[in-house]
Amino acid sequence: xxxxxxxxxxxxxxxxxxxxxxxxxxxxxxxxxxxxxxxxxxxxxxxxxxxxxxxxxxxxxxxxxxxxxxxxxxxxxxxxxxxxxxxxxxxxxxxxxxxxxxxxxxxxxxxxxxxxxxxxxxxxxxxxxxxxxxxxxxxxxxxxxxxxxxxxxxxxxxxxxxxxxxxxxxxxxxxxxxxxxx
Length: 182
Known about the structure:
There is one protein chain. The protein has helices at about 25-40, 95-100, 115-130, 155-165, 175-180; strands spanning about 5-10, 45-50, 80-85, 105-115, 130-140, 145, 150, 170-175. By secondary structure, it is of the alpha/beta class. The longest helix has 17 residues, at about 25-40.
């Protein structure tokens, strides 16, 4: 089965000192980088997704800012595809689907940020489009959320979204386990 690695939004604004710092961004990027290294070593396709926020009042991922750049830990090589997006779903109004279908890709290995937003949305969309998805849970990061006057810690947000994706939309694996199967 033709497999591609999809690295979503591992961008500078999500790291310490960035405009939208996530909990565990550095550890998640390190795990994503280890998966990326294996894909590159085996000559498997890699697609980087970069979010550029074009909505008025955006506070992060603003075009032309250092925060919008892909983090150096997973920086694309010259021959790797970069898809620019403006919405949480990496398939919405981008050429991602056409690119993947053109390459005969049937399976996606997904890593990136934020678990509760772009990872969740893109994984569900990919599954709905017929891709077999593997989500690398320790190569993803998110932040705490609030609802009803309660703050939900980032780890709980991450775990709830990963649990919801597991089985129906994706097979969820650790980076170490995934690397052992590639």
